[in-house]
Amino acid sequence: MSDAAATNKRAQRQAQGRYGMIGKTLNELDDRLGIAKGGRTFMDKIFPDHWSFMLGEIALYSFVIIMVTGVFLTFYFIPSSALVTYHGSYLPLDGQKVTQAFSSTVNISFAVRGGLLMRQMHHWSCDIFVGAIVVHMARVFFTGAFRKPRELNWTIGLTLLILAIGNGFFGYSLPDDLVSGTGIRIAYSIMESIPFVGTYMAFFIFGGNFPGTSTIPRFFILHVLILPLVILGLLGAHLFLLVRQKHTQFPGRGRTEKNVVGSPMFPVFMAKTTGFLFIVSGITALLGAFAQVNPIWQFGPYDAARISYAVQPDWYMGFLDGALRIFPSWSFMAFGHTIPLEVTIPAVIFPGIIFNIAYLWPMLERKFTKDNEIHHLLDRPSDRPKRTAAGVTVLVMLSMLHIASSTDVIANFFHLSLNAVLWGMRILTVILPIVAYPLTYKLCKELQGVRGAGKRKTPNIVSRTAEGAYVATPTPAYGEDVGHELEATPVPAYIESEPEEPLESGVRTVDR
Amino acid sequence: MSEEQEQRTPVSLSGLSADDPRLQPAAKNPKTVERVIAITFVLGTLFFAGFGALFWVDAKPWTLGATLGAGMFFVGVGLVAWGKYLMPRGPFVEERHVLANSDADRDAFAAVIVERGGVVVKRRKMLAGLAGGGLGIFSLVALFPLVRSLGPLPKGTLFHTDWQKGSYAVDQNGRRVNVGDLAVGSIMTVFPEGTQDSDRGQAVDQTVLIRISNQNFTTQKGRETWGPMGYVAYSKVCTHLGCPVGLYEQQLQLLVCPCHQSMFNVTNGAIPQFGPAPRPLPQLPLYFDASGNLRSQADYDQPVGPGFWERHS
Amino acid sequence: MGVTSTLLRRVPLLLAAGLVASAPLLLFVGSANANNLNPPPTTRKNAGTPNSTIVVKNKAGVVIKYGNKYITYKAPSSKLDTLGRALFLENCASCHGTEADGVPANGTSGAYPDLVGLGPATIDFWIDSGRMPAKDLAAVEAPRRVPALTPAQAVAIAAWVNSLSASYPDIPTPHLKNANVAEGAALYALNCAACHTIEGDGDALAESTFSPSLRHIPAFQVVEAIRTGPANMPRFTGNLSDQQVSDITKYVTTEIEHPNNPGGLGLGGLGPVAEGFVGLLIGLGLLMLICYWIGDRS
Predict the structure, then answer these.
(1) Same domain for B181 and B129
(2) Do residues A121 and B65 make contact, with C-beta atoms less than 8 angstroms apart?
(3) Which of A61, A229, C141, C269 is deepest in the core (most CB within 10 A)?
């Protein structure tokens, strides 16, 4: 084809202007970027509809909320441990010497318009963010979505969880209030407990012996710049891999290893997911409105000699706190050195083991099952009893440790002896996971024997005939269920249900 | 046939007819659903407007959150319902292509890396070695300013506090403690005079002073002179993770750590009786001078606070 | 093979597993009251000394009222002795003995606290906060209850016990308009929060002891508790001046009682434990339910 012919054709196409302004803009973009084909494919990208595939979206959208509210907070927060005398609107602090970090956080809560709402939304969405990552990971684990070819995305996801927990801790520490200051003290001591390098690590990271000189400024830059950048980058990689490798799907009618069945990106998924972004933001804002979180003005400023009873870290650090509470006092001396195992084991070695097993799990499973195939269809948890039982065991253990971080609250609530509750938690943390494994395994095996388990059933209408016999008639499927009876189709360019009518009344009616 | 429809035909990828069930909305009665969705959008808009007005007049935080949250929630529910009930219900399908390339493509890629690299590097082994060595040393050395300038070395700072022979015990305001200040069953936090306002004083030197009895009190053998007039002093830094051990139960005679509930018995040298703390709280030897002021005989006989590698006692 | 029958056949297995799982639970519920620690007895008599700028004496030269602009202390009138004795015999003597020395009629010394010389504020606090007369004698600690005796009766009993051996501290009246709530907040964080928690809700302490909530407590009882150190609470005497005690009292009776709490429900002052529950169960739970609505279920 000659250049002239091509130019001619392009001119013809532009002159037609078949799709108006939008079409013109897309053409201009395509001239420069060549996006038409890829764009069409992207708009036709199929998202499986199962509800559990949306758990990751909760995490994604919580992160969006964290970013937006976090940017707002950085406008007012002063990351400095310089002492100032507080003279704000909160009287019980009037005249107290507090750090600028603390006083600016109190000011965000009391003096900045909308500041308290933003602070509370920031904190709540962080709690939800980490929680959503955990349930999303549980879904991925129990359905085997981490198997080849998705091992790398499992690794990235796990790293995101650790970074989210870490950044949550840094953020929680920034206001320099009594409760979070105690948390920093504990973090310092945990670091100090590491053999060989612990004291050096602690001195370097905090800038000296506790409380150090650099804690707040360093935590600030980690919290608002470095870790968010890493999280953003990994999140991008996570989503890129998801698009590149396409979604997994549960087995079902018409679903194979070679296709994806569901809703197209545009418009169905886009409507749903944008709506969901709004819903997540809405619920976070409602929590921020009606449930108080981290009232630092009541806690007062941190001072190493002050302490409150009943201090716990945010929930995602709870398992560490619980492990530290229930672990026995096993410090020992060797070769003239102290090895504080009562700290190192629960706070360093134990989480290290748990996370490393999680990192290695896809490889371990491949090794033990000798299954090196590519999988796009998911497992039902009951079909893989060993994996399911192992996952439940770890979750039970972590839950028990989490509960152990509130022994005092339990003892107070049920009016029990604190010492007895602690012993109870020690025993339960060991016994329940041991019980959980065979129990889950057994349950999975039982479920395998049940026909139609996990399938949705339509109700039967039972009627009595004139002869007195009973007859069960299945009801016809309706609404969204009808879809499951149909053969899946590639997405057509036009998906209206009827030809466009001239807009006479202004409202186009849709009849069936 | 209108011109509009004529233009449409060539790009339509499938021969689905307009009444294909997969192109129908999922709702049984789309009109009703449409009305409900319209209501959610109107509600959302109203709430957003309310949010704007409340923000303008600087209303209470909860009203801001309530209107913003409700607005977002309604708009979100409307959008989702639109997608779920009024858009074509499918199911739609997409082919999944094998990600792996052909063996020839793979070989070509590997050949580029291995052979092209081999030709260049193998021929210049020495250069490659030197360059690798240089980059290696650089990456090691580059860590130096990043790590070493972060903070001071621990040196001896973890091994002693500011309590010295003859330090006056003062409260947080710098007032010296006198022999008559505490009744039996009282507790207070003291610092060596001059450090009460410093970070280090609060973090490292903080000490709990308890009056156990009216008589000189011996907590352990060898500490006969440490508790004059029943005053005993222990480091307030927990030996588990460094929290201030500020919780004194005077009938049980226990100091309890508020963080992880280690329990130390103050009558026998703060030996841990329960919980995760591995070591007793170090005891500070005290005496009263001629004018009745409380002073320390010496520094603690061991490092205070949580365990660390270099600690040798 | 239906799921029901399958599960039914496994009932013994499930029961056994359940039993094993709950054994430690039963164990720690059972041992909840096994508090066997016998603390060394502490001498608690003659708490505090009048350290004041205002001292009012009666004609005989006996101090009847003292204090300063922050707190005044007043000894109960000796005219109440007779009434107090009668009330004591009726309500207290079965344990503390007819002479208030902790020796009941048919008992031995040491089983119950000796009240002689404890000072009027101590007696008044225990009765006025409803802890005495004790309802459950086996309990490790007497919890706060609706008082069985009126404030006037409490003062009368305090008057009689004090007549056996006059002692301090007397019954305090704080004058909170002179107190500084910010100073109180700082002192509270240093001296009180370690047990009562920073929001004043109280919690479980060692063994079967508990720190009570500080809400709904009259100001004079806060002063009495600080000055006398009831039960396991340490007492604060020379290390806290009357001014400092009134600061703390003001903080407790105003800010802890009615916290300036923008931002919604206080979640019971349980801090991150309650926050985790709300964030996960309500926040994440609700969102998961919505996912369930949005998505497909097969």
Answers:
(1) no
(2) yes
(3) A61
In a domain, C155, yes or no: yes
Q: Is C258 on the interface with A (CB under 8 A)?
A: no
Least confident of A264-278, A470-484, B45-59, B195-209: A470-484
Three-class secondary structure of residue B191 per DSSP: strand
Residues B220 and B279 in one domain: yes
Between positions 13 and 42 of C, the ones with CB within 8 A of A are: 13-14, 17, 20-21, 23-25, 27-29, 31-35
Query: Are residues B107 and B75 both part of a single domain?
Result: no
Chain B residues whose beta carbon lies within 8 Å of the beta carbon of residue C42 = 184-185, 212-213, 250-251, 253
Which CATH superfamily, name and number, covers A50-297? Cytochrome Bc1 Complex; Chain C (1.20.810.10)
Residue C246 lies in a domain: no
Residue C289 counted as domain residue: no
Residues B214 and B284 grouped into a single domain: yes
Domain count, chain B: 3
Residue C140 located in a structural domain: yes
Residue A484 is predicted with a pLDDT of: 60
Q: Is B8 within the bounds of a domain?
A: no
CATH number at residue C104: 1.10.760.10
Q: Provide the domain limits for residue C139.
A: 78-164
Residues B291 and B173 placed together within one structural domain of the fold: yes
Q: Where along chain A do its domains lie?
A: 3-46, 50-297
pLDDT in tens, A284-323: 999 999 999 989 998 999 999 999 988 888 999 999 999 9
Mean pLDDT on C75-95: 88
Tell me the CATH number at B188: 2.102.10.10
C-alpha C151/C-alpha C149 separation (Å) is 7
Q: Does residue A383 or residue C9 have the better pLDDT?
A: A383
Mutation target vs A (from C20, C291, C293, C297; most A CBs, 10 A cutoff): C291
Instruction: Give domain status of residue B12, yes or no.
Output: no
Nearest CA-CA partner of C21 in A418, A390, A427: A427
- Under 8 Å CB pairs connecting chains A and C tally to 269
Which residue type does A327 have? F
Enter the ipTM: 0.91
- Same domain (yes/no): B191, B286: yes
Put simply, the chain A residues between 127 and 156 with a CB less than 8 A from any chain C CB are: 127-128, 131-132, 135
Same domain, B182 and B219: yes
Contacts of A45 in chain B (CB under 8 A): 94
Domain that holds residue B68: 17-86
pLDDT one-digit tens code per residue, A222-252: 999 999 999 999 999 999 999 999 999 998 8
**Least Cα separation, residue C192 to chain A (angstroms):** 8
pLDDT of residue B17: 73
Q: What residues contact B16, with CB distance under 8 A and at least 6 apart?
A: A489, A492, B22, B23
Contacts with A336 from chain B: Cβ below 8 Å = 312
Q: What is the pLDDT at residue A214?
A: 87
DSSP string spanning C84-97? HHHHHHHHTHHHH-
User: What's the pLDDT at A489?
Assistant: 82
Quick: pLDDT tens for A409-454: 999 989 999 999 999 999 999 999 999 999 999 999 998 887 666 5
* Average per-residue pLDDT for chain B: 89
Place of tokens 């001396």: A333
* Stretch A203-210: mean pLDDT: 90
In angstroms, the separation between the Cα of residue B19 and the nearest Cα of chain C is: 23
Instruction: Say yes or no to pLDDT of C119 above 80.
Output: yes
